[in-house]
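Report of the visiting student (M.T.), summer placement. My assignment was to run the structure pipeline on a short list of targets and document each run. The first record concerns Transcription antitermination factor NusB.
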Amino acid sequence: MPRSQRRTGADPARLVAFEVLKAVRVEDAYTNLVLPALLRRHGLTGRDAGFATELASGTIRWQGTYDAILAACIDRPLRKVESKVLDALRLGCHQLLAMRVPTHAAISTTVDLVRDRVSAGAAGFANAVLRKVAQQDLEAWVAQVGTDPTTAYSHPGWVVDELRAALGGDAELGALLAADNEPPKVTLVARPGRSTRDELPGEPTAFSPYGVVLPGGDPGQAPAVAEGRAGVQDEGSQLVAIAAAAAPVEGLDARWLDLCAGPGGKAALLAALAAECGAGLVASERQVHRAQLVRRSLRGAGGVLGVVAADGTAAPYRPGTFDRVLVDAPCTGLGALRRRPEARWRRRPADLVELTALQRRLVDGALDLTRPGGIVLYATCSPVLAETSGVVTAVLEGRADAVLEDVGQLLPDVSDAAGPLPGTMQLWPHRHGTDAMFLALLRKS
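After the run finished, the structure tokens were exported:
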């Protein structure tokens, strides 16, 4: 019998969180992707599922701070602590310092987890360490181990530097880093022509006319979501699709392209908007398994011309084929740290070199595929200047057939969102309650 199915002394919710941390560490898994399967495997729903979700995601968000605290409580370097034990200690820290879990319960359940998954000796070690952690609250610990943004807000130093540069200084840095550590609210989108916002539970989003924010619960319980007529989508991503559909084009407006469509959320909204305009969308995605996810997202939707597994830098379409193209490019994801907490620990400064080169090739390819008078909307879920103004500037300097236009006019209700280049837009978690999406509108001249 697999170990996960054996009778165990460990609490199931804490065991799920422990297995999430292991999957992230060993398999480079994403928390939001691995968690649902583990919840189903252990039969967790309702409050237990919510507890496991916050425990896993919150622990990963605050890992840097907790490691500094643990280092002050352990008489040897953390690298010499067994990885499974360190995972459990981090989970214990989150319960003690950031969740309303009684001290005795936080310590005893973590010790039980270590005893069950490692050894009795390791359990004794965990008990001693967590009793030291419990002697102070989080504020007191941060004052002791370091008040610098890296430690206080649990962000790698290079990420703090990039976000500071994108903000233009320190004035809002603390607010942004704090927002990155807040669990994101679940946002739904009604796909026009297939559902309406009125049939979705929750409060209307501030900027998107199609979104609602759920107060809690399982979004899959909403009939429109279960039937694929609506979906889960951050409001910032909704605004990207809305802007791509709203930009004026000269002449015929029949063929739209989503060049980097996986996993399909923006493509589903874009296809619905295309259908309302009498246009059709081609959804293109390089990775075959992600193209399958796009097909699933577009199942039953109107306005779909096809889903193609193709490399966006060498797409199999004739030049000038499309009237409008969305390039939601692969990026560092540092604008979505609320919902992808592991990205802050997984990304490295060297990633920017490879990613920005890819982003430039994708935008260049998109402009080649766009007819004169058509538009390309470039978007990234990152505020990092190399991935935003750096890419747009490099593309414009390299070609004479593209001009930058004002994307803000397409989203007039969104204020305080000026991007790093005139006419571009930058959304922020601490200002707008969205992921930090960047938008730039390019017209093929």
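Residues 233-444 form a domain with the Rossmann fold fold (CATH 3.40.50.150). Confidence is low (pLDDT under 50) at residues 1-7. I thank the supervising group for their guidance throughout the placement.
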